[in-house]
Amino acid sequence: MLRAPIKHCRNCGTAVHYRVPDDGDEKERAVCPQCSTVHYENPLNVVGTVPYLGDRVLLCKRNIEPRRGKWTLPAGFMELNETLAQGAARETLEEAGAEFEMESLFSVVSVVHTGQVHLFYRARLLSDIFDPGFETQETRLFAEQDIPWDEIAFTTVRETLRRYFADRRLGRYLLHDIDIL
Q1: Phi-psi category of residue 54: left, alpha or beta, with phi > 0 → left and psi -120 to 50 → alpha
Q2: Closest residue by Cα to residue 119 from 43, 47, 179, 173
Q3: 3-state secondary structure (DSSP) of residue 142
Q4: What is the widest separation between alpha-carbon atoms in the chain?
Q5: In this structure, what CATH number is given to the domain that contains residue 33?
Q6: Coil, strand, or helix at residue 169?
Q7: Which of 27, 99, 105, 121 has the maximum number of C-beta atoms within 10 A of its C-beta?
Q8: Residues 91, 57 within the same domain
Q9: Where are the alpha helices (H) located in 55-138, listed in sequence order?
Q10: Mean pLDDT by 10 residues, the chain (181 residues)
Q11: To the nearest 10°, the Cα dihedral for 80, 85, 90, 95?
Q12: Long-range contacts formed by 142-149: CB under 8 A, 24+ apart
């Protein structure tokens, strides 16, 4: 579900009009009739990790909506003034309380219908002791055959996990570019 449309100018507060700007743009945008500011709407970045220990991955049972009670990888919205990797590490600490070493970017998932891009890094766990934050009901390590596939919260997580285990079986990890329309 896409975010609500912009209603007021962020600069002066005037109600905006949706139209094609006069600057050669070809797309309808929120344009302020008072100060002429053109407001662009861009995707939000969701950053996270695929934390693993040996042949198992760490999943977090969500304690918040959406999809409360479902399993997910530790992830959340990237903040200003942080890199992708810093955001992914922060989310992993907040949601799982895990001790880990960041590795390479693993998947980039364009979620067109929500206006989001999900980016997951591999993260090698240094311990099997976790201290999850308030957003997480429970953390658990799962081998591939034990993953509760029907209880996975998001398609982005399911697709990332499928590719992770496929790469693991092949003994090499690629960067995956995934589109979810």
Answers
A1: left
A2: 47
A3: strand
A4: 59
A5: 2.20.70.10
A6: helix
A7: 121
A8: yes
A9: 84-96
A10: 82 95 89 94 96 98 98 98 98 98 98 96 98 98 98 98 98 98 92
A11: 120
A12: 142/56, 142/57, 142/58, 142/59, 143/55, 143/56, 144/55, 144/168, 147/57, 147/59, 147/71, 148/71
Specify burial of residue 67 (Cβ count, 10 A radius: 0-12, 13-18, 19+). Answer: middle
- If phi > 0 it is left, if psi is from -120 to 50 it is alpha, else beta; for residue 48 that is beta
Residues 6+ apart with CB under 8 A from 98: 51, 58, 74, 92, 123, 125, 127, 130, 139
Output the pLDDT for position 24. Answer: 83
**The total number of structural domains that make up the chain:** 2
pLDDT of residue 2: 61
Same domain? 33 vs 49: no
Domain holding 84: CATH number?
A: 3.90.79.10
The structure tokens 């399993």 sit at: 71
- Which residue in 49, 83, 52 sits closest to 157, CA to CA? 49
> Do both 1 and 87 map to the same domain?
no
- Sign of torsion over alpha carbons 88, 89, 94, 100: positive
Domain that holds residue 101: 44-180
Residue 69 contacts residue 62 (beta carbons within 8 Å): yes
